[in-house]
Amino acid sequence: MPIDDPPRGVPLSLGTGEFFQLLRDREPRTRADLVAITGQARSTIASRIDALMSTGLIAPAGMAGSTGGRRPATFAFQPGARVVLAVDLGATHARLAVTDLASTVLAASDEPLSIAAGPGVVLPWVVRACRDLLAAAGRDTADLAAIGIGLPGPVEHSTGRPINPPIMPGWDDVDVPGILGAELGVAVLVDNDVNIMALGEHRTAWSDVSDLLLVKVSTGIGAGIIADGALRRGAQGAAGDVGHMSVPGADHVPCRCGNTGCLEAVASGQAVATALAAQGLEAADSADVVALVRSRGAAASQAVRQAGRDIGGVLASCVSVLNPSVIVIGGVVADAGEHLIAGIREAVYRRSLPLATQHLRIVTSRAREGAGVLGASAMAVDHALSPAAIDALTG
Ligand SMILES: [Zn+2]
After folding, report:
1. How many Å lie between the centroid of ligand 1 and the Cα of residue 155?
2. In this structure, are residues 99 and 84 in contact, taking their beta carbons and an 8 Å threshold?
3. Could you list the residue ranges that cross the membrane (predicted)?
């Protein structure tokens, strides 16, 4: 193939960072394979391979199958070359993992931690936990390529700072990437907990689907949007905040955001618990609601199903805007069994147009409580292996 006629879609000059993306599928390839795929000169390919070998990100992967004569060497991506730290901080817990560059978990921990203790307590704790976990995985901070962290509140995407997070006193506008980056010496990617759940669920369970909505139903309600295969955060990072969309007929219900009639004020685990407590049942939070449903409490089951209908009414609007092929329901209340999802299905299928629901699946989370950590890992890996980061590493 002449050099001025590369395959369609491949840039004429493929830098090392772009070239590396071809190898991220971990398939071993020969120099000749890579010349054929890229349409680039053999000498260019050789220098790209040398540059990547020097970082350890690719390595010889044995010999290709014989086609007669000398068998050529193959090269493949080495996900173990470096590691990332993945952190999922909730209201009262911290899940952490050290993973390789294919998001395989090498060491993990799950500890109680109150986010309301503030950044002065939580961030030094994360730094200590990170060092402990790296040691447990037999690695050190020099192996660390990036950190991905999810926070239980709104995060401004361009700065990685939480903005007016309702359940995180003391965290408003705190420079989380700056503080952690100064301690651990790597890039720190921050997002809200629902976005990293959406990313984790998509990568681990639905990678063949390009349009997915993940809805977390727990103390609050939020959604993460995967559209055209990528996480969509919107202009500031606030996309998917479905918890404060309004529910018809609920104008009298006040919400913690200052507005009234919000979905979260009517249908969150906390809202259902409060309503059941008013009926004299012992329900203080989402976990109590789940326990009541599991013990076959009729009032709790009916309340969760109605919450599902209210959520489904709002999701029907989301379906009209986004046309997802899968809606994944996660969060503590999803553990209440079929009642929540049955209510959601009922409302979505009733209120959406047939073309949008023809192939729509509404399911519970497969990655479950691991979704956040896996998504945080994917976010960190995507940054560490981006063309720009690889070019900086090999430049
Ligand atoms: Zn609200």
Report:
1. 17
2. yes
3. none
| pLDDT at residue number 6 | 47
Task: Tell me 71's DSSP state.
Answer: P
Cα(330) to ligand 1 centroid in Å equals 20
Q: What is the pLDDT of residues 361-376, one digit of tens each?
A: 999 999 888 999 999 9
DSSP per-residue codes, 336-392: G-HHHHHHHHHHHHHHS-HHHHTT-EEEE-SSGGGHHHHHHHHHHHHHHTSHHHHHH
| 4-58 tens-digit pLDDT | 444 555 555 689 999 999 999 999 999 999 999 999 999 999 999 999 999 999 9
DSSP string, 113-169: --GGG-HHHHHHHHHHHHHHHHHHTT--GGGEEEEEEEESS-EETTTTEE-S-TT-T
Per-residue model confidence (pLDDT) at position 266: 97
Distance 131 CA to ligand 1 centre (A): 38
Task: Compute the distance from residue 242 Cα to the ligand 1 centre, in Å.
Answer: 9
HSE-CB at 155 with a 13 A cutoff on CA atoms is 24
- Residues (pLDDT < 70) of the chain are 1-13, 65-69
Degrees to nearest 5, angle at CA 23 with 373 and 71 = 135
Report the SS3 class of residue 241. coil
CA distance to 125, 330, 339, per residue, from 209 (Å): 37, 17, 26
- Cα(352) to centroid of ligand 1, in Å? 24
Question: How many other β-carbons are positioned within 10 Å of the β-carbon of residue 98?
Answer: 25
Return the closest-CA partner of residue 184 out of 222, 150, 133, 138.
133
Q: Which of 316, 328, 321 is nearest to 352 (CA)?
A: 316
